User: Which sequence fits this backbone?
């Protein structure tokens, strides 16, 4: 009987934390990794930059936002840097303008770009899994509306998830204005789950973000290129596999993976990747053709 009594007490002890966990969930109390809006704002704004893009003559082409995803690497929208040959990045609340050293990677299809900028002592923002986002989730955005309202932080919810696995977009009520494109969209745990890129001006609270998993795919492709250049072919293929899984219509990832496989003597696999590149580029051109026809009123 004593043994049974002790077993019952042990079971009660083991179950107690689980019961508390269920109570917290039922009461709507955050149980792990949640941060206050103030904590999220502090970290987000410290990693957010104002981008000023220029042409060959130094003439400003436009403004945008970006954020650090790694030491000296900034993520932003492709349309923010499109047509530019140079530019600067300035941290929120500071005066120093740092020159953009390299346009490291670009994904025009998903409107993403990665820039290299030597800025000391900036803590990058962690990237979350955008596939876990659900309608109704609270999100926060940081950016520089119009370039004048520097360091703006606001909140909203995910109001819809549009598109399919290769062209998914997050619709949200958190405001996005001109100048905020390229800024981070952050969940309640302080992780970036999207990149602000558009707003529908003729509607209310119709703002959009690119899921972070596409950005993670772009970063993986960049890391794969680095490892290939270092002669680490097997490690490079691992990165390109990640890139194609997260960003299945990013042609550059297939192209580079094909190059590595060719170097390894895997000719059939390389040809398959090159064929995918051709198919994706044809699809892209057909999409551009249809968009152009629609713009000029042709059927």
Assistant:
């Amino acid at each position: 009987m004593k043994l049974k009594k002790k077993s019952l007490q042990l079971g009660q002890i083991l179950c107690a934390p689980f019961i508390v966990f269920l109570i917290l969930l039922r009461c709507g109390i955050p149980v792990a990794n949640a941060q206050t809006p103030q904590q999220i704002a502090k970290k987000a704004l410290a990693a957010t930059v104002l981008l000023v893009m220029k042409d060959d003559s130094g003439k400003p082409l436009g403004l945008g936002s970006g954020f650090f995803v790694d030491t000296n690497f900034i993520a932003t929208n492709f349309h923010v840097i499109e047509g530019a040959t140079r530019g600067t990045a300035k941290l929120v609340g500071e005066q120093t303008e740092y020159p953009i050293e390299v346009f490291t990677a670009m994904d025009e299809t998903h409107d993403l770009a990665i820039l290299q900028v030597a800025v000391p002592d900036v803590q990058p923002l962690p990237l979350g899994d955008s596939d876990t986002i659900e309608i109704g989730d609270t999100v926060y955005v940081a950016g520089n509306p119009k370039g004048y309202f520097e360091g703006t932080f606001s909140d909203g919810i995910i109001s819809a998830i549009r598109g399919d696995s290769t062209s998914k977009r997050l619709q949200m009520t958190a405001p996005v204005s001109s100048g905020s494109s390229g800024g981070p969209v952050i969940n309640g745990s302080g992780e970036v789950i999207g990149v602000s890129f558009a707003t529908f001006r003729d509607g209310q609270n119709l703002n959009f973000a690119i899921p972070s998993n596409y950005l993670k795919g772009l970063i993986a492709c960049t890391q794969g290129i680095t490892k290939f250049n270092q002669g680490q072919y097997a490690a490079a293929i691992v990165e390109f596999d990640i890139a194609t899984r997260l960003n299945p219509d990013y042609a550059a990832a297939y192209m580079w993976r094909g190059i590595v496989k060719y170097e390894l003597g895997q000719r059939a696999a390389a040809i398959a990747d090159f064929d995918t590149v051709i198919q994706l580029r044809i699809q892209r051109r057909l999409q551009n053709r249809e968009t152009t026809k629609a713009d000029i009123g042709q059927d």
